[in-house]
Every structure is written in structure tokens, then in C-alpha cells.
Write a structure and sequence with these properties.
This protein is mainly α. The longest helix has 11 residues.
């Protein structure tokens, strides 16, 4: 077992199980549009959100 997992309490270690990788998912692709992003206050909003996180 992984050293990090060994630090978990016994009751949580019992819940650990091996899992297989999920099936392949198609990636999301960009969609071209005539509209463009235009929000003058976006940068300030993004900075505030990053500070909250």
C-alpha cells in the first residue's frame, strides 16, 4: 500500500478499492462563433475569485 494511504485511519483504509480507468471520452472541442468575449470587468472579477479560492 502507498505510504500516504497507510496514514489513513483503519475505517477509511477499508473503503479503499482498486478501480479501472474509465472508458475513453471524446474531448470537448472549441466552437467557432461570430460572438466574441467582451467584458471590461472580467480581469478584476477573476482576480477576486482567485483570492477567494
Amino acid at each position: 500500500m502507498n505510504k500516504l494511504l497507510e496514514k489513513l485511519p483503519d475505517n477509511q483504509q477499508e473503503k479503499i478499492r482498486a478501480a479501472s480507468f474509465p472508458e475513453w471520452k471524446k474531448p470537448m472541442l472549441a466552437t467557432l462563433t461570430e460572438d466574441y468575449f467582451d467584458d471590461e470587468g472580467w480581469n478584476e472579477k477573476q482576480i477576486l475569485i482567485n483570492r477567494m479560492i
